[in-house]
Amino acid sequence: MKKAVCIISGGMDSAVASYIAKKEGYEIIALHFNYGQRTENKELKCFRAISNKLSAKSYEIDLPFFKQIGASALVDKNIAVPTEGIKPGVPVTYVPFRNGIFLSIAAAVAEKEGAEAIYIGIVEEDSSGYPDCKESFIEAMTKAINLGTKDETNIEIKTPLIHLHKEDIVSKALELDVPLELTWSCYQAEDEACGVCDSCRLRLKGFEKAGVKDKIPYKISH
């Protein structure tokens, strides 16, 4: 059976991407990173729940150096998470080159496991403006990964959500029976989602436009 490494954060987008991989006939190897993010414990719990639902072999990898680098509100508590709404430009929640580092490690796992694909749930069309979510970046990373691995290794990075809007992702999740109640998107809280950070706003907007109610608890749900 063909194999795919699925980078699963515990959030909605990566969960949907992994379910798409399963529907496309891949045996799932679930990969999660603990990098000192504010909601690390909640995300790990969600990852484990999703991996269990997928009956996936899983890897949990610790990357403590992200906190040493800092420069992001997700890993540096001295930088406030924006709550006033999504603005133009790269927000302070961007973690420098995070997806590049994640994909490099995923490539190592894929080569070890003999996987032919890496699934990542990045979204370019309806995102917070992160530079490592661009399709051109993924194309460049795919080329670099295949240049830097064994000749017999041929890995494709699959981004099934990259051109979708949040409401389309919610609809796709419902179609695939993805347990969205087991996912978490909030940047700053682990008990009740704040409802006002960029990630919460995008998620809530997606559910509203899809015409369904989000089952996770929110402090503010507009």
CATH topology: the name is Rossmann fold
Query: pLDDT below 50 for ≥5 consecutive residues: which ranges?
Result: none
**CATH architectural name:** 3-Layer(aba) Sandwich
Apparent shape: globular
Indicate the mean pLDDT: 96
E-strand count? 5
Major β-sheet, in short?
A: 5 strands, parallel
Helical fraction equals 25-40%
Provide the spatial order of strands within the biggest beta sheet.
3-2-1-4-5
CATH superfamily: HUPs
Counting DSSP H or I runs of 4 or more residues, the number of helices is 7
Q: In total, how many domains does the architecture comprise?
A: 1
- CA radius of gyration is 16 Å
Q: What proportion strand?
A: 5-15%
Distance between the termini: 45 Å
CATH class: Alpha Beta
How are helices and strands ordered from N to C? EHEHEHHEHEHH
Instruction: Assign the structural class, choosing from mainly alpha, mainly beta, alpha/beta, alpha+beta, or little secondary structure.
Output: alpha/beta
